[in-house]
From TrEMBL:
It comes from Candidozyma pseudohaemuli. One of its GO terms (cellular component) is Arp2/3 protein complex. Pfam families: P34-Arc (PF04045). Signal peptide: none annotated. This is Arp2/3 complex 34 kDa subunit.
Amino acid sequence: MLQIDKSNLLIKKTLTERIFPAPDAQLKSLDRIISDFDFTNYHVSTLEDRQLILLSVYLQCWNDLTRYGVSEYLKLKYQKFGEFLTIVDDTEAGYNFSFVLDTGALASQSDEIKQELIEELALLKRHAIASAFEKAFSRYDQLAEQFKDQDTYAEEIKGELKNEEVLVIKYRGEDECIYIKPSFDRVTVIFSTIFKDETDKIFGKVFLQEFVDARKRSVQTAPQVMFTQKEPPLDIKNAVSKRQDDDNKGYVTFVLFPRHLTKGERRDNCISYIQFFRNYFHYHIKCAKAYMHTRMRHRVRGFLKVLNRAKPENVDDEGKAIDNRKTASGRKFDVGRV
């Protein structure tokens, strides 16, 4: 299956053309708005000094991320580029976070640093959402250290873990959220999603069953995957907003074990892949439906050809065949004439 790229390709292309210009290219003004999944918008524009580029981002779930320290996390993530990348305190109107990139100061840097900066800025949305995951994983580290020598089956410890805070990211409004609940031996990530069509629910169940079967067959180190419809899992029962249940609403649960939460590249990859699961999930549902419709149309065209070949010859009232063949000049054949 095709995996959706975690970086924004248009941001990458825009910055690459600006930072690695053609030899004879003139320094032009820039004003580009880019829309991404989950109602995310970017604005890339030049200031009065055309060597300064303003990059702003808007995320629908920014207010949720603010509670989990997104601004501090982004400042820490981009501080190594501080010589030529500045975080703007006075954020651009209509956006949540803004950078100013000094391409003049960047010109003296090596191509490796320039390319690394482009890659990191193209991952801006990924890093913003990752702030909540990093907080949950840090809490998991604390709980694992706290309860490593204790009896976790004790009732008081069970009650304490049950009341652990659930981190909520409303990345597509109230109806579709990400719920993250850390514990001492796992981190549970739950996606709520809406299936707009009845067939989407069927395809979704098939895809999720494949996740389960793949884990049983060969990928035994993969996270545990569960699916419930309409009713939220017990882990997030208190965190789900008190809205009317929707028959088209489903909850996909991933259980991340310590092997997935190892600090370093493995943890970063886990965050990158799991936070874009909803887009990946619905993208492949739509692709599967489009493929099936294409195959159905192909089969219908084949059936029509068979039916056209099976049409009987024209006959008169007495059941005799009428010969409608004509010569090139348009004259009919005279049947029976030698």
